[in-house]
Amino acid sequence: MTQILDDIDRAIIVATQDGLPLVERPYDVVAEQVGIDGAELRRRMAAMLDSGVIRRVGLVPNHYALGYAWNGMTVWDVADDDVAAAGAALCSLGFVSHCYERPRLLPDWPYNLFAMIHAKRKDDADQLVARAAAALGGMNRGHRVLYSTRILKKTGLRLKGGGDVPPKPVPARA
Amino acid sequence: MDDTDRAIVNALQGGFPLSETPFADAAKALGLTPEQLITRIRVMKEQGVLSRFGPMYNADRFGGHNTLVAMSVPPDRFDEVAEIVNSFPEVAHNYQRDHHLNMWFVIAADSRERVARVLTEVQDRTGLPAHDMPKLTEFHIGLKFEA
Fold it and tell me: What is the count of structural domains for chain B?
């Protein structure tokens, strides 16, 4: 679903995609940049939150910094007819952060359901994978876990290109 | 990171107030002054404990597009290819993973056409196939990380 946004909404997105200013009245500061008043800015942001253009407002922890060193992309081969049920089953586990259906790359890559898991220790990560497999039961025709071994780049959404310098690659685990 | 920082991280992964003085309102619930909350968020950002603070946008909802791309990069070319891929501002994140498909990155842009062009340019400049794996269905979760 695509939401119709006007130029002011897009200006708000551009002004806040790197984050909110860390001052007592951050919305007033952004509003001034955009050329509207603070109340109007907050009304528009609330509307974008309602419609899903804004997923949420708050902080995003770097999960590596919190000690989540084992970040696995679990990939599952499930029958097309089972994808909805399998996706719902993975969501309900309480430890999957993102879950998507994606196209298979046959013949090498039969996996069509992707779910991200995060753990502080390898044992815990393996246990989460086992719980996910148990939840899928007979719907699971095969799976793999691809752990990230290095973060090569991590930035947020960029509505207009340019401007950001990629950080140096860092090891995912010390 | 102390207990107060952990409480902030656990409380503010969503629901930051859209009020005139949101730090004051959020600080009250945490038993902090607005200045303390602002300072702690600033320090955690500087230390890299937080990667962002603000609204999280969903590009799909305003005509944008993103896709996941997988590449199988020969080990001796890995760093060179990573540099080419990362040079595109549309590449939002890029991870090395333990599989023969060893480079996985997200291309996000404000149109499908732009995403497709970046994909083509990546292939042209690296001489390697880049597999386009766009999401067909998103299962919504909203998991929070425990600090």
Answer: 2
B32 and B85 fall within a common domain? no
Nearest by CB to A62, which of B19, B50, B108?
B50
Q: Do B92 and A156 touch (CB under 8 A)?
A: yes
Does residue B70 share a domain with residue B110?
yes
**pLDDT > 70 in chain A, percent:** 86
Evaluate whether residue B63 is within a structural domain: yes
Q: Which residues does chain A have within 8 Å of residue B79's beta carbon, measured at their own beta carbons?
A: 169
Quick check: B118 and B112 in contact, CB under 8 A?
A: no
The answer to whether the CB atoms of A95 and B143 lie below 8 A apart is yes
pLDDT computed for residue A164 by the predictor: 38
**Is the domain of B63 the same as that of B103?**
yes
Residues 6 or more apart whose CB falls under 8 angstroms from that of A55 comprise: B56, B57, B58, B142
pTM of the model: 0.81
Interface pTM (ipTM) of the complex? 0.82
Q: Token pair 């499930």 is at which residue?
A: A78
Alpha helices, DSSP H, located in chain A:
7-16, 26-34, 38-51, 83-91, 122-136
Q: The dihedral of CA B15, A27, B60, A163: what is its sign? A: negative
Amino acid B122 reads V
| Apex B134 CA angle, B132 and B140, nearest 5 | 155
Cβ <8 Å between B61 and A1: yes
Print the domain residue range for B102. 59-133
